[in-house]
User: Fold this.
Amino acid sequence: MSYRIGLVGKPSVGKSTFFNAATMNDVPEGAYPFTTIDPSIGEAYIRVTCAAPEFEETCTPSVGFCDDGTRFVPVKLIDVAGLIPGAHEGKGLGNQFLTDLNEADVLVHVVDFSGETDIEGEPTEGHDPREDIAFLEEELDQWYLDILEKGLERYRSGYHGTEGDVEVDLATQMDAFRTSEEEIKQVILALGLDLDPDSWSEDDKLEIARELRTRTKPMVVVANKMDTPAAQENYADITSDPAYDHLTIVPASAHAEKALKEGAEAGVVDYQAGEDGFSVEGDLSDDQRKGLERIRGFVSEYGGTGVQQALETALFDELGALAVFPGSANGRADTQGVFRDCFILPEGATTEDFAYHIHSDIGDGLLHGIDCRSGRQIGGDHELDHRDVVELVTTG
Ligand SMILES: Nc1nc2c(ncn2[C@@H]2O[C@H](COP(=O)(O)OP(=O)(O)OP(=O)(O)O)[C@@H](O)[C@H]2O)c(=O)[nH]1
Ligand SMILES: [Mg+2]
Assistant:
C-alpha cells in the first residue's frame, strides 16, 4: 500500500500541471475551467536521504530509485476536477468527484497566487487568493456535512437493528475516511456536545464536520504560479499576515518543475527533482536559455520549484509519516539484496507496526527489533523515528 496524496482546488490553478510535473504524465492542461473531468492517479516520489552510504553499502531499491544518495520513494498522486463555490449544491461539476479523494491520506490545495483567475477559474486580474483558500475549506466541510447527515439518517432509521450509539452509524458512514467510533465520540464530546444528535443545531453539525475534516484530511496549501511577479507579491503579503500562520503554504511553480524535468529528459539540463539549482548542458536557443535563467532566479530564491517540497511537507509534516529501512544489524547484506526497501509508516509507528506492515507472519513472530545504527535491541512497542534502520528478529 502506498500513501495517497490528493490535489484539490478551483479550476485553472494548475492541479493537472502539478500532477504532470510530479508524475511525468501527460493529462490535459488548459487555461479554461474544467479541463479535467475524470480523475487521474499517477506515481510521484518523495525524497528520503538514503541510509545505505552510512553502512558503506550501495542500495538496490525494489521500487522507486536512488540518485546520488537520495531515495525517491513512490507515492500515489490523485488529480481531480476543479471545485467552485456552491459545488455542494451542484454548481460546476458538483462535488461528487470528491469521492475520488476519499482514499487520499492528505490533501494538497493548489491555489493560483497570481490572481489571474477568478473564483470559478475564469481569466481575470487582481483576484485575491485569500478568497480561494477560504472557500475550498468551506466546500470540503460541506462535503463532510453531507456524509454526516447520511450517517444521521442511518442512525434514525435504525439500520443497526437495536437501539445504537450515534458514533457507530457515523463511523460506518465515514468508513472511507478511516476514522473510528472512538475518534468521532471524542470529537463530539470535545466540542461540548452530548451524544444525542437531536440536541445538535445546524452549526453544531457543521462544527463536527469541520473537526472531522481537519483530522482526517490534513492539508497543505501550494502557492502556485510563483514564476509570476503578481504571485510573488501575494505570497509575501499572505505569509506575513498572522491570520495565515496556522496554514502551511509552500511556494511553487508547476511550470518550472515541468520545464526542468523535460529539459532533464531531453538531456539539456542536469536537474534532480527538488533541488534548488540545475546546470545547463546541451545546445539551446537564446529563448530557451533565457527561459531557464528566469527559472533559475525563482528556484534559487524559493529553494526549489516547490513541487517536491509540497508533497514531502504534506506527507512528513502534515501527516507525520516516517520512512523506515529494513536492515541487518551485522552489517551484511541479506539474501534479498542491500537496502532494497524503504517503507513509509504512519505517525507513531512502532517496531511491531513495522513488522506487521511488512507481513502478518513477521508481525506474529516478532521477538524484538535491533536498531542497526546503535546495535541496540528495541522492543515491539518502541516508537520508530524517521530514517531508522531496523532489523526485525522473529521466531520463524
Ligand atoms: N505561470 C504559470 N502558469 C501555470 C502554472 N501551472 C499551471 N499554469 C497554467 O494554468 C492553466 C491551468 O492549468 P491546469 O493544470 O489545467 O489547471 P487545473 O487546476 O488542472 O484546471 P482544471 O482541470 O480545469 O480544474 C494552464 O494554462 C497552465 O499552463 C505555473 O506554475 N505558472
Ligand atoms: Mg486539471
